[in-house]
Amino acid sequence: MSGHRIEHEVVIAGGGPTGLMLAAELALAGVDVAIVERRPNQDVPGRRAGGLHSRTLEILDQRGIADRFISEGQKYPSLRFHATTLDLTGFPTRHNYLLALPQKHFERIIAGWVAELPVRIYREREVTGFVQDDAGVSVAMSDGLSLRAAYLVGCDGGRSLIRKTAGIEFPGWDPTTTWLIAEVEMAEKPNFGIHHSDAGMYAIGPADDGLVGVVVTERPVGRVNEPTLRDLSQALVAVCGTDFGVHSPIFVSWFTDMTRQAATYRQGRVLLAGDAAHIHPPQGGQGLNIGVHDAVNLGWKLAQVVKGTSPESLLDTYHAERHPVAARVLRNTMAQVALLRRDDRTQALGEIVTELLNAEESRRRLAGAMSGLEIRYDLGEGHPLLGRRMPDLDLVTANGPVRVYSLLHAARPVLINFGEDATYDGPWELPVIGRVPAPGAVRVRPDGYVAWVGESAAATGAIGVPA
Ligand SMILES: Cc1cc2nc3c(=O)[nH]c(=O)nc-3n(C[C@H](O)[C@H](O)[C@H](O)COP(=O)(O)OP(=O)(O)OC[C@H]3O[C@@H](n4cnc5c(N)ncnc54)[C@H](O)[C@@H]3O)c2cc1C
Questions:
Q1: Ligand 1 within 6 A of 103 CB?
Q2: Is residue 454 in a domain?
Q3: 309 and 241 within one domain
Q4: Which residue's CA lies nearest to atom 51 of ligand 1?
Q5: Is 375 a domain residue?
Q6: What is the pLDDT along the chain (467 residues), one digit of tens a residue?
Q7: Residues 16 and 112 grouped into a single domain
Q8: Total structural domains in the chain?
Q9: Cis amide leading into 220 (omega within 30)
Q10: Chain center to CA of 7
């Protein structure tokens, strides 16, 4: 590699939702981090993620920035799975709802937060390749400059150059369905809502500025190029019998139900997160969310390894913890796509799924999984809190009331000893599993998961951030 070489501790390829969140986590931990991003700004062409789930909102709350998103979004009390509504309001969390917020707004707001932190962003250039050795990674950029870092993280989306260059396998399932997605004007007034015909599915609803948002099945599967207005018109005629006089598109784009997951999230000094590590259909609106969760799981671990406070093997727990979570998301999205089929046998299956989801326990489990509240990392046997998210309790301390999540703003581990200095007299209740015994003391990781539960409050009588 030629040209001038700039050093950082960590380089992130891609400044989408995952890369931005990871950069913030690393910067909070005092790591010298840089992002290389192809786009000139955070504008998101077309329409992608539509909302934030409960656990994502809790994670943003742990960093003290949830209100920035909540003030611009709209709260919905439930999720959908096939024909069933999954109520969120019973979950013991401050964020027992789905926040509708388009990805372009999510990216703008999170980029605003990142701009307040010491993060270097190299914009309008691409990572074109890298070479790793025992001491670090040399990263080549399209402007001829090269970066040198201890670690490189590929947050560069589903077509990840980092994943491909590292030779990491991306096994999974080819698409069975293509959908066109567009914002357009229509001469005729369509029926808003989700409709099915033998030729496929179409969803039509109001978009900004009096426009109409459309998603429609396209046959056959196998598209490789961006669709045109004419393609959209043809797909609408095939599925709905009319194109509603569609014209003046803001955008026409497409997506499929291709479903794949990286075989490993780490190869030496190279790691993958977000869509670079897993892609799946958008049913259930989970992709952006789990990318953000990947970032907060990896951030503190990478920081500790870079700073030499933890051995490199800590990085392997990133794959061990996050790969199974995304695998379950892949499964629930594949199931939702399968249930869209209109043949008699799939209809019968759908009816049985709906009947089974009549049981409140089943609905609660599924809602817990899709909202991200139910995640449990395998940190061994013990108290039910171990490996689960710490609830955002209202503590009483010598200095007055304190919310647990406010103790996590600095993205550092927290030890809470439920003795005289920090008391909590309310119920201990976890999403999905319900009441659990009150612990004597807990150690909470920077990502908000409980790493240790102690019996006694007598140990230090302390609440605080261990050195
Ligand atoms: C139609 C649709 C609907 C969706 N709906 C939802 C939803 O409702 N909820 C949800 O949670 N998710 C949804 N998703 C998924 C969500 O959009 C993605 O999961 C999310 O964008 C992933 O974020 P990311 O940062 O991992 O990757 P990306 O958003 O793909 O970001 C990758 C970034 O890397 C940059 N980049 C790529 N290669 C390079 C390179 N070589 N050098 C430099 N920069 C590079 C790109 O410019 C981009 O900014 C939807 C997706 C689609 C397509």
A1: yes
A2: yes
A3: no
A4: 48
A5: no
A6: 445 789 999 999 999 999 999 999 999 999 999 999 999 999 998 889 999 999 999 999 999 999 999 999 999 999 999 999 999 999 999 999 999 999 999 999 999 999 999 999 999 999 999 999 999 999 999 999 999 999 999 999 999 999 999 999 999 999 999 999 999 999 999 999 999 888 889 999 998 888 999 999 999 898 999 999 999 999 999 999 999 999 999 999 999 999 999 999 999 999 999 999 999 999 999 999 999 999 999 999 999 999 999 999 999 999 999 999 999 999 999 999 999 998 999 999 999 999 999 999 999 999 999 999 999 999 999 999 999 999 999 999 999 999 999 999 999 999 999 986 799 989 999 999 999 999 999 999 999 999 999 976 454 445 555 43
A7: yes
A8: 3
A9: yes
A10: 29
Distance of CA 19 to the CA centre of its chain: 11
Mutate to test the pocket of ligand 1, among 37, 48, 178 (most ligand atoms within 8 A of CB): 48
Instruction: Please give the model's pTM, rounded to 2 decimal places.
Output: 0.96
Give the chain's length: 467
Residue pair 334/324 in contact (Cβ under 8 Å)? The answer is: no
- Residue in 39, 103, 122, 271 to alter for ligand 1 test, most ligand atoms within 8 A of Cβ: 103
Ligand 1 neighbourhood includes 417 CB (under 6 angstroms): no
Looking at the fold, whether 336 and 443 belong to one and the same domain comes out as no
**Distance, CA of 121 to CA of 104 (rounded, Å):** 18
| Burial of 224 (C-beta count, 10 Å sphere; 0-12/13-18/19+) | exposed
In a domain, 342, yes or no: yes
Phi, psi of 143 (to 5 degrees): -90, 5
Q: Say which amino acid occupies 58.
A: E
Which CATH number fits the domain that encloses residue 132? 3.50.50.60
What is the extent of the structural domain holding 246?
178-256
